[in-house]
Amino acid sequence: MTTPNLDVLLGAPLAAELVLRAGGLVALCKLSDTALRMLGTDDFQCIAGRSRAKQLHAGLLLKAPLFSEVFGDEEEADTTDLKAAQKGVAQLGRKCALVAKADLSGACPDGSLGEMEREKLKAAFARLLAEGKVTAEDTQALPVPFVFVRGETGRHKRGGVKERKKREAQQEPVSVVSKATQRVRMGVSEEEQVRQLLQREDIRSEFAKERAQQLLKESRKRGREAAHDEYDDLQSISL
Hints:
elongated, mainly alpha
C-alpha cells in the first residue's frame, strides 16, 4: 500500500521504515501520535543519539529531514532549543498520524496533503524558534508586595484554610442521621434507609446524644414572660 502523503512529509526511506516498524499502514494508523513518535527509540547507536531521543521522547521522527534541518541531528544538537524541539517533534507526530490515515483512506493520492502539512510545520518550527518563552525557563512573576500606609483602609484578604474552618465551626452541626443518609442507595426509598439506620446501635446512641444535647441547650434558654397589660384587669369587670 502506497503512502504518498507520508513520503512527502518525512521522505520515502523514513516513511517506509516507519510503516515497517509499526507492522503495516493499518497498524500505524491505529497508533496514537505519542506511540507513533516513540517508534524506534532504541535504534540509536551513539550515546548522543540515545540521550537526545530520551530528552525529546521520540525515535525515528528525529531523523526526518524536516525536523533535523531546523533543530539539528544528534551530532549537532542545540541544547538551548530543547523545549522548542520537544514541541516541534510532538507537532510532527500529530501530522504524521493525520497523513497516514489519509493515505489509508486513499485521499490526496498526489501527495498534496503531505506538502500542505509540510509547509505548515516549517512555519510552526520557525515560530517556535522565534518565541523567547520557549528557550527560557517557565518562571512566574511574584505578586507586588502590599505596603500598608497609615490612614488607608486595609484590603480584605481572601479566605484561606483558617477562615474556612472558622466558618464551618460557626455553622450548625449536621446530624448523624443526615450524614448517614447522604449516600443514597439506588432502589431503596429514603424512609426505608432511615428506618434501617435507626436500627443500628451506633446510630441510635449518637442520635440519643444529639437529642440530649439539644434538650439541654433548650432548657438553658430563659423563657420569655408573658406580656402583662395594665388594662387586663379592667376587661374582667362587668358593668
